[in-house]
Amino acid sequence: MAAVPLHEGLGIDYVTDMEEAQNFTNLMWPDGNDHFCKTVYSYSKNVAELDQMVVRMILENFGIEKYYESHVESTSYLLRFLKYLAPDTPDQATQAFPCHTDKTFFSILHQNQVNGLEVKTKNGEWVGFDLTPSSFVVMAGDASKAWSNGRIHSCEHRVTMCGTETRYTLGLFSFIGGTVNIPEELIDNEHPLKYKPFNNVAMVQFYAAKGRVNAYSLEAFCGI
User: Fold this and answer.
1) Which residues contact 69 (CB under 8 A, 6 or more apart)?
2) Helices 18-28 and 34-62 meet at what angle, rounded to 10?
3) Does residue 209 surpass a pLDDT of 90?
4) pTM for the whole structure
5) What's the per-residue H, E or C state across 194-222?
């Protein structure tokens, strides 16, 4: 992509469905690659369990765990393979992917030994992470913010590269199917309704149509 020359990526939609994992494998390896297919499927199923664990914790914290089963049943997962090239000037920090929020419910990132992920704090500072390859980062996306009526903040993040090594990341992204309604338990005098019912896929399409530059796409898409 011309706008982000250091970034490359590809993904598998509905990756926790073995048939979809197999379809991707057949596309990339027409002669077959069972090891890849089984590894990707198993990895995604396990990380999806982490996603569901976080969902359960949040619902229990809000006292609305009754929505857990319906949430899990409506969730689908996209696995993306992300590559960030080392910059031409290794001694100078270079933005490999610009500041953005994901349009997911949650995003779970798992990287190699090369750092680069930065998140924006509430006071506007950028904070980097020194992560090991055994670490997982869970970030809330815009779907989570809208569903929670703004109680959960979607995470602004970017990737900044320096040095001579390539950064590889696996990202498992969760999306909610159908029409997403804000739970009535999350609406009160202190938290008046901020978002209309929305469709997560339509949100992604709206964001893409805006050229990925609209910093207020969530409010523009389904804000009241």
Assistant:
1) none
2) 140
3) no
4) 0.94
5) CECCEEHHHHHHHHHHCCCCCCCHHHHHH
